[in-house]
Amino acid sequence: MAKLTGADVAQHADKNSCWVIVHGKAYDVTEFLPEHPGGQKIILKYAGKDATEEFDPIHPPDTLDKYLDKKFHMGEVDMRTVAIEEKQVDPDEADRLERVKNMPPLELCYNLSDFEYVAKQVMKRTAWGYYSSGADDEITMRENRTAFHKIWFKPKVLVDVENIDMSCTMLGSKSSIPFYITATALGKLGHPDGECCLTKAAARHGLIQMIPTLASCSFDEIVDAADGKQTQWFQLYVNKDRQITERIVKHAESRGMKGLFITVDAPQLGRREKDMRSKYAEDDTAVQKEGDTTTIDRSQGAARAISSFIDPSLSWKDIPFFQNITKMPIILKGVQRVDDVIKAVEHGVTGVVLSNHGGRQLDTAPTGIELLADVMAELRARNWQDKIEVYIDGGVRRASDVVKAVCLGAKGVGIGRPFLYAMSAYGVEGVCRAIQLLKDEFEMNMRLIGARNVSELTPDMVDAKGLAYHTIPSGPDMLHHTVYSPLTNPAFKAKANL
Ligand SMILES: Cc1cc2nc3c(=O)[nH]c(=O)nc-3n(C[C@H](O)[C@H](O)[C@H](O)COP(=O)(O)O)c2cc1C
Question: Where is the FMN hydroxy acid dehydrogenase domain (predicted)?
Fold first, then answer.
């Protein structure tokens, strides 16, 4: 069959007939426009044109095959006939590329804040906006970090710490150290290989990786990138259509996932203003088509654009549904109060992650580490501490944070943004170095606190009384302070004479 030409596709350039090209193939998305989770305006921007570059980071490669009826697959396009778009020139782009060329060598990154610092300078603005943002005033996001500073060690001396064993078991699987790479969406915003970078680094270091529902790579690509021995978990956003959910869960189980993490803190995605603002800045330059009355608000950022399928009616009543469709251990990710942990035990789930989604959901929700202390006290009072595995995430940037969490009773700790930053700046090697730095720190901390293995990290080794105080008098963590981007206000038009 003869290939379509650029001119053929260009005839379908409005909402009455809207075709787009993705990876050399044309698709008729006219009927799909109102359903597009990211709104129709963004598709209309590419109507009649090649949308591959915008499409790629946000959608796994199998999206169109899976979700767009075959009758709308219009055929291959002879890409030589497609007009090359004159791109809007981003005034910052040349400077950014210059910074990429002059990045510090990887060996000069000594801690996770260093990766964040480099990533901030070299990532595209929209990607940085999506990864770094927190909800509203970002109070919870910042407290996630500072909460760890309120816990002090009570080190033991004269313990023979020549040999240190950092290994542990999480949900029955071995890990070289008690932290894991948690689920973070849209990996390709940061690196063209997306989440597969994290998979490869996890394999090299014997770490567990949690695969997100909203990965940029397809789920199967991420599983195929694994070395066949490593452990992967699956993070689930529950779809309003339970048949779709069931299909996804069963597929995850059939591909060997060792845990199902159901995210329960996101019935609606939080407002992340840095993300919204960076997206808006980009779209502001788009030429408004004549007669285009589309009112979809594109200023919502990448997060809202991808999440409209998530079911806000999800409730405790749904837990048996999941227990019926899978044998994978079920863990509720995003639990934020003690009595919900008690309910989780009563519902027979295997674990909880005490998490506020990296401060991206409800602002002034409690930090995982603070909640952990209260949760373990309640579980121990009931002698229930072995009935459920408790994990935390949020703000972990030093191995000492992991040590503190394990002392307080966590089975393990999730780390999100730092690995995204390491990946965005330096790819797989960057993630490997970030993990190695944490391992080195962890081993040193174990020696200095006087613990030879993870089971010797016990509550009496920390003083966590300070957790009750939410305002730290001692000022910011300076390393974090240099990379933290303050929230900004809307920009005035040029020469506003402020
Ligand atoms: C860019 C980004 C994307 C995320 N995407 C998801 C997601 O798709 N599903 C989910 O359950 N949690 C998601 N999270 C939350 C993380 O799993 C985790 O709770 C959080 O990142 C931990 O905080 P940290 O980034 O300070 O380590 C995301 C976090 C970030 C930063």
Answer: 104-467
- Closest atom of ligand 1 to 141 CA is 26
- Do 278 and 126 meet the contact criterion of CB atoms below 8 Å apart? yes
The secondary structure of residue 73, as a DSSP letter, is E
Mean pLDDT of the 410-420 span? 98
Task: Give the DSSP letter of residue 432.
Answer: H
pLDDT in tens, 185-205: 999 999 999 999 999 999 999
Domain limits, the chain:
6-81, 112-467
End-to-end CA distance of the chain: 61
pLDDT tens per residue, range 337-391: 999 999 999 999 999 999 999 999 999 999 999 999 999 999 999 999 999 999 9
Which two structure tokens, joined as six digits, stand for 101? Answer: 């060329």
Please work out whether the CB of residue 144 comes within 6 Å of at least one atom of ligand 1.
yes
Angstrom CA distances, 36 to 116, 137, 139, 292, stand at 32, 29, 32, 17
CATH dotted code for 112-467: 3.20.20.70
User: According to the CATH classification, is domain 6-81 in 3.30.43.10?
Assistant: no
Instruction: Kindly report, residue by residue over 47-87, the tens digit of the pLDDT.
Output: 998 898 888 877 888 888 877 888 889 999 999 998 877 66
Q: Is the CB of 417 under 6 A from ligand 1?
A: yes
For residues 359 and 143, the answer to whether their CB atoms sit within 8 Å is yes
Ligand 1: atom nearest CA of 415 is: 27
Active site members: 237, 265, 357
Partner residues linked to 335 by β-bridges = 354
Of the residues 120, 198, 211, 357, which should be mutated to test ligand 1's pocket, given the most ligand atoms within 8 Å of the CB? 357
CA distance 483 to 167: 31
